[in-house]
Structures are given as structure tokens and as C-alpha cells.
Amino acid sequence: xxxxxxxxxxxxxxxxxxxxxxxxxxxxxxxxxxxxxxxxxxxxxxxxxxxxxxxxxxxxxxxxxxxxxxxxxxxxxxxxxxxxxxxxxxxxxxxxxxxxxxxxxxxxxxxxxxxxxxxxxxxx
Length: 124
Prior knowledge:
The protein is of the alpha/beta class. It is built from five helices and seven strands, in the order E-E-E-H-E-E-H-H-E-H-E-H. The protein has a five-stranded mixed β-sheet with strand order 1-2-4-6-7, sandwiched between helices. A hairpin with a 2-residue loop joins strand 1 and strand 2 (about 10-15). Helix 1 runs parallel beside helix 2. The radius of gyration is 14 Å and the shape is globular. The N and C termini lie far apart (about 35 Å). The mean pLDDT is about 90.
């Protein structure tokens, strides 16, 4: 299950639960995400990953089909905090942040919500 909420004019929160993502779930999530981010500038993303939801091959195909739109959407955001108790997901988030120009990504433990919020909202 993927929950997407626009919680402020420049803020999107996403929550991932479950152990897999199928084609329909991926398609719906991407369409919703693109729609709710259209008017965002200098945005903040907050991801809650209780565990990594493995996408099916069909879901991966859907994501690849939307890569140009997803990269444009990412350009609307300055920061992304990833909350997870899985150490490898936090590390992967930090590495991904180093690879995507213009988007800072940082991983936090689930109990570090206050730290994640402070990091997301700090001014440069």
C-alpha cells in the first residue's frame, strides 16, 4: 500500500507498507504523485518506509515508463527525508542523495521524526 498526502503547499508525505507493489498500485501511485506535485516549488518530501516494498516486474516496467515525468517531478523538490528502521534503506537514501543533482536526501530512523522534520524545514 502506498499513501500519498499533500500536507502543505510545498510538502508531500508518502508512506509505504506491505511487502510488494503490483502494477496497478504503482500506476495509481505515480499518477497521484505527479498530479499532487504539479504546483510545488522548493518542495519537501517525507517518506515513511516501514519495510522495503518489493515491486513486481510489471510495476518496475510502469515506473520506467514514467521516468521522464518522475525526474521532472523530482526537480520540484529540494529535500527528501526517508524514515526507516532498515539501516540499508537509510544508507541507500544517503547514497541516492549524492547522485541526484539539486535534491538532498537523508535517511533517519523511524523514531527520529523530530530530527527529520527539523532537517526538512531548515533554511540553507
